[in-house]
Amino acid sequence: MREYLLTILVAALVTYLITPAVRKFAVWFGAQAVPRDRDVHVIPTPRLGGLAMFVGMVGALIVASGLPKMRQVLAEGDVSVGRALLLAGGLIVLLGIADDRWEVDPLTKFAGQVAAAGIFIMQGIQLYVLPLPSGEPLSLPPAYGVPLTVLVVVATINAVNFIDGLDGLAAGVVGIASLALFSYAYLLSHAKGITTLSGPTLTAAVLVGICAGFLPHNFNPARIFMGDTGSMLIGLLLSGSTIMLTGQFDPAIIGTYRLFPLYVPLLLVPLVAAVPFVDMLLAVWRRTNDGRSPFSPDKRHLHHRLLELGHSVRRAVLIMYFWVGLLAGGLMGMATTSNLVLVGSATLTVAVGGVVLMIVLPRVARRRAAATAGPTLSVPVGATVAPVVAADLPVPDVSAAQAPGPDVPDTGTGKHRQHI
């Protein structure tokens, strides 16, 4: 555990320290987000924050390669985790830099995402089996495993990209999701001597660190955006951890272990990423239903609707954090206790309270704003208000104030001040 914590700390520190330099480079390079109609920010803001996150990932992998147990994770096994993250992540970052600077078309970005998924597959990160409720693993031949792996990678990348619309939203949501994946994968890797899950544990740890290191610079008011460079990178890492966690364990062993029922790994991955995935599916359905491209932007995402309800930017982001954390916490509770009724009841109670607060908080804020604005003049229907003219106002006697005193000569300074 200490090596994982050290990896998280290194990823966070390197990302946090390198972000100001990346911000200056983005300004010099001309990669700035000019405010658009669907944006929330009102001033040009540098992008390319994903470049700092990539540097943090590289730093964490370098440190991990020097640690005894982490060296085994990176060197042994059929999956080349370090090489896969560096090659696929490097390709995604180059594509993101080009998009943040020159606006790459959606088809090119899609091709780059598929190529990154291909790198994952060549390095061994692929869905080989799927667990069934019966406890038997369903083997996936390459004809099914390869396209399914590509689908998971591309869908996760675009889900994170879709939700990246408010300051700190994508970094926080993915950070919470990756923390849940890290916790589950770490506990699972120590259950019944299962050691093949160190790859997803390390990937999730790196993702937790780079999100935590970038978030202080990206939270409202953001000094830098992660851009497509960052959203595609963290989506790629999240998909990599998801694929390795889902496809590289024995369902029979998991099903016989008390702390890890079989359905938990089936539900953990989609639910911790439920917010970006639901937002993505709704956006695709909405745009295709309107006869537009599913990649065409709009201002009808979930976070935009929270703003329409009257929430501030920070409160909207915290609400999204709350729902992702609630889903992740509920699944982790099911993984660590056998009292599913208690966990489900507590999760449902907190969810109802969250819905109530989402509705009540904007109304309370509006009432306070109306109270601080003071009373307004109400005029009965049909009544007329006489206009106020200058003749009705009293004219003050200013002759004494304009006359110079006996000891102070009139130098005409006031006249000059009027012309200044």
Task: Describe the protein.
This protein has helices at 2-29, 49-65, 68-75, 81-102, 106-122, 142-163, 169-189, 198-218, 227-247, 251-256, 263-272, 274-289, 302-308, 313-336, 340-373, 399-402, 413-419; strands at 32-33, 45-46, 129-131, 137-139. The model is unreliable at 256-260, 388-393 and 398-420 (pLDDT under 50). The protein has 17 helices and four strands. The chain starts with a helix and ends with a helix. The strands form two sheets. The chain has a two-stranded antiparallel sheet. α7 (169-189) packs parallel to α14 (313-336). The protein is globular, with a radius of gyration of 28 Å.
What is the radius of gyration? 28 Å
Q: Give the helix tally.
A: 17
Q: Report strand %.
A: under 5%
H-E string: HEEHHHHEEHHHHHHHHHHHH
Kindly, what is the distance between the CA atoms of the first and last residues, rounded to a whole number of angstroms?
70 Å
Shape: globular
Low-pLDDT runs of 5+ residues are: 256-260, 388-393, 398-420
Give the strand line-up of the largest sheet.
1-2
Short characterization:
Helices cover 68% and strands 2% of the residues. With 420 residues, the protein is an all-alpha fold.
Comma- or semicolon-separated keywords:
420 residues; mainly alpha; two-stranded antiparallel ribbon; two-stranded antiparallel sheet; 17 helices; 4 strands; globular; disordered C terminus
